[in-house]
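To make this tangible, this section ends with a sequence with its structure tokens:
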Amino acid sequence: MKKQMIAMLLAGGQGSRLGALTQGMAKPAVAFGGKYRIIDFPLSNCVNSGVDTVGVLTQYRPLQLNTHIGIGIPWDLDKQFGGVTILPPYEKTGDSEWYTGTANAIYQNMEFMEQYNPDYVLILSGDHIYKMDYEDMLNRHRQTGAEATIAVMPVPWEDASRYGIVVADETGHIREFEEKPANPRSNLASMGIYIFNFSSLKSALEELSHVPHCDFGMHVIPHLFRKNDNLYTYEFNSYWKDVGTLSTYWEANMELTDLVPEFNLYEEFWQIYTASEAYPPAFVAREATVHSSVVGDGSLVEGTVIHSVLGANVQIGAGAVVKDSVLMNGVVVGAGAELDRAIIAEGSVIGAGTKVGTGSFAQSQLDPRVYNSDITVIGAGSTVPEGVTVGRNVAIIGKTEQSDYPDGNLPSGAYIIKKGVRS
């Protein structure tokens, strides 16, 4: 028994550019949109596209991701033959190693793919927000007779050097491929979504098995291009967002609060599925005000919420004001607190009267490569005590106390990471 196409979903990345949000979990497990986790989007795309066999490759802090996926029931992927399978690195009889690159991770799971003897293999990343019909992409792949098809989309020219860039003719036949070129010749960017003929993929991975940190963009695609020049594009022109930085993650959440969101979570014909607990309905008190916001199940709002995304079981105290912020599941905001342009991770507590996101931007003293906007980030399970003031572009991880805030203030660009917090 064989499968026409199986999917291999790369979900082992640390997501270091998300800073405090990925201290204790892999990036695909990070909450999104008040109800979901990032990995729900590629998994739901698979189900909606008729792909019923998915290998999820995990590595960095996989506990929450594994727990969330389980045996795949929410996505109807609890199959006897196929379904969803978690694929962590494992000890082998010969040399064993962690996954050292995207292609290396797939190569180490060749045995998993071979048991289904697929005609095609779909390679996906677990950290993008989008809706795509992979069946449509497969049809394109078969019509062109390609060895590999790369999903691409136009990006602003000023951003093109951040991506793998494709130069293609009017038929979509790829003429050049460059990974993150300094001077891009095109603005058609690879989305990190590929369909390969399994035989071609297997041969390429075996031929490149000696390459350290073997990667699709850096090694496999150029190798296939040099070998047979039979690669085509699948151009995608709908919403797609790489939420791998704090600013893009925040922006993607904020876009859900627009009057007519560009990315619509409410479409009946393309639902996003997730594993979620059975919370009661949200409750908004008489004295509360909620404007243009997403409010998760089980939340209690007694204060003011403006242009924000609240996860499940969030509590906003009386007189508190939450503006332009993302609050994940179980966050508690005390009475009279004020939050502006903040991301508060799961289970954190903001004390009464505390102000988060005040003043002007200042460069991060922790890591300017990660913390480089005026968004303040508070990691999962953290506590900010009552009555303190926290500036912009601040990172807080752990249960902090009044003594951690000189004169009751943590200025913009500063940070607190409590000892004992795993990093």
